[in-house]
Amino acid sequence: MELVEDTIEAGPLSLSILRPPDPDAMIDEARFDENEFMPYWAELWTSGVALAAVVAARDVQGLRVLELGCGLGLPSIAAALGGADVLATDWAPEALDVTRRNAERNGARVERLLADWSRPATLLELAPFDLVLCADVLYEPRNVDALLELLPQLAPEVLLGEPGRATAGRFFEGAERSWLIGREGQVSVLRARS
Predict the structure, then answer these.
(1) How many CB atoms neighbour CB 46 within 10 A?
(2) CB atoms within 10 A of CB 128
(3) What is the predicted pLDDT for the residue at 23?
(4) What is the mean pLDDT of each run of 10 residues along the chain (194 residues)?
(5) HEC string of 162-180?
(6) CA separation for the pair 90, 77 (Å, rounded)
(7) What is the DSSP letter of 60?
(8) Which has the closest alpha carbon to 111: 66, 158, 156, 53?
(9) Which of 14, 130, 127 is nearest to 81 (CA)?
């Protein structure tokens, strides 16, 4: 797979990131027909950069952190560089490979796991985590219900980078039942209701 390098400023961090030059060229009709797979992981999303900046500004030393839909791995790398024990997950094996390469080139230790939120048994076995990171995971409407059910079972706090997609309104409406919702810059902070 051809990759290009970018330098990304995420708060106090300057990260060297590899990414595919043209994510649209990675669309595979057969994979899409099988399970509606789109290579969202290959895009350098602004919400991922914003989330990485918020994570880099927080004290995450010693926390168990899970990233759902890690894509290129920016938030996971920021957490690992801050001293967190990080597990980055995605349902695309290619994303996990690029996350591994990006973590290595930035001197970060990030564990990786192939995971699908619609079959979360493995994630639930590994829970609880201290913090869950999600960037631009509400792209597809089908993700809303899966995340509303899964997130409260994983951690007491979630940082969600979300650029204001139409599906986000439905997610936040549902999230208000289980979470107190605030903001840190461009990132939503969900804290479990006691």
Answers:
(1) 13
(2) 12
(3) 65
(4) 93 96 63 54 89 98 98 98 98 94 99 93 98 92 92 97 90 94 92 84
(5) CCCCHHHHHHHHHHCCCEE
(6) 14
(7) -
(8) 66
(9) 14
- Asked whether 108 and 85 are in contact (CB, 8 A), the reply is no
The closest of 84, 91, 193, 189 to 139, measured between CA atoms, is 91
Give domain limits for the chain: 4-192
Q: What is the pLDDT of residue 34?
A: 52
H-state helical runs in the chain? 29-35, 46-57, 74-81, 93-105, 121-126, 142-154, 166-175
- Looking at residue 68, what is its pLDDT? 97
Closest CA to 89 of 129, 46, 44, 49: 129
What's the topology of domain 4-192?
Rossmann fold (3.40.50)
Residue 88: its pLDDT value, please? 99
Q: How far apart are CA 139 and CA 147, in angstroms?
A: 12
Structure token digits, residue 105 = 């080139």
76: Cβ contacts below 8 Å, ≥ 6 apart: 65, 67, 70, 86, 88, 99, 103, 108, 110, 133
Q: Please give the structure tokens belonging to residue 27.
A: 């669309």
Collapsing DSSP to helix, strand or coil, 59 comes out as coil
State the pTM of this model: 0.92
The secondary structure element, H or E, covering residue 17 is strand 13-19
Task: Supply the pLDDT for residue 33.
Answer: 46
